[in-house]
Specification:
The protein has 251 residues and is mainly α. It has helices spanning 18-23, 25-28, 34-65, 70-77, 79-82, 85-98, 106-129, 133-141, 146-157, 159-176, 189-197, 201-229, 232-250.
Length: 251
């Protein structure tokens, strides 16, 4: 097995203008084009986000429901914030090579997962903890089991806050994923890497624009998903709360 991942650089003339590069059809299509790089980036980000949600949401919901391990779990997950993602991925690369898994995607995948876990965990934990005690007591009085209280009351009422945490995590992952290109991978970060390596400003700026644009679109897409996924009654209640807040401020 070849453990050294070949770096397939993007060969672009140094005197090409940014608009000329963007408007060239060959820049977008074919193997190594922008579209295939976007697919590579989104594929890794989708896997990272799915794993992060599968870990953080159930763990935070159960711990918050039982009011346990608040400080311990938060402290452990915040390690992902304290250590830079690039440093985590860099430390994992030798381990991955030793185990025969190559440069990527495991090191960068694990590092991005550690980046995504804290916002999803903390917002889920907060959403469950801040559920109206009256609603929880009413559900228990109606004979709901603890599982039903958690799923049908606490998580249902907190879905807006949870989706907000997932949106933040998704934007962070998409914006950070390009460091994968500096660890032997590809994706959109390849344009920034190759722009630096070839001293090509058009390639460098173009890569930065693509990364920023994809992160912005990700935020907008998850914002739209929040509006669609929220129950109609919940959206109406939140609008009333916003109107009441504005009325109170106006007075």
């Amino acid at each position: 097995m070849n453990l050294i991942a070949p770096l397939q650089g993007v060969s672009v003339p140094r005197n090409i203008g940014l608009w000329e590069w963007f408007s060239n059809g060959e820049t977008w299509t074919g193997e190594g084009g922008i579209l295939s790089s976007v697919v590579e980036t989104l594929t890794l980000c989708a896997v990272v986000l799915a794993v992060s949600i599968a870990i953080a949401v159930p763990l935070a919901a159960v711990l918050a429901h039982h009011r346990r391990a608040e400080l311990g779990a938060t402290w452990i997950l915040n390690i992902g914030r304290a250590i830079p993602t690039f440093a985590i991925a860099g430390l994992l690369v030798p381990i991955s090579l030793t185990q025969g898994y190559g440069f990527e995607p495991w090191p960068i995948g694990i590092a991005l997962t550690m980046l995504a876990l804290p916002p999803i965990f903390l917002t889920t934990y907060t959403a469950v903890r801040q559920t109206d005690p009256g609603a929880v007591d009413a559900a228990r009085a109606m004979g709901f089991t603890e599982r039903d209280v958690l799923v049908r009351v606490e998580l249902a009422l907190g879905v807006g806050l949870i989706l907000g945490g997932i949106r933040v995590a998704a934007v962070q992952v998409v914006a950070t994923e390009p460091i994968r290109a500096f660890l032997g991978g590809e994706g959109l970060g390849r344009y920034v890497r190759d722009g630096l390596g070839q001293n090509n400003d058009s390639l460098l700026i173009g890569g930065a624009i693509l990364v920023a644009g994809l992160a912005t679109l990700t935020g907008l897409a998850f914002g739209a998903l929040e509006r669609v996924a929220l129950p109609r009654g919940f959206r109406r209640l939140r609008q009333v709360q916003v109107q009441n807040t504005r009325t109170g401020v106006a007075r």
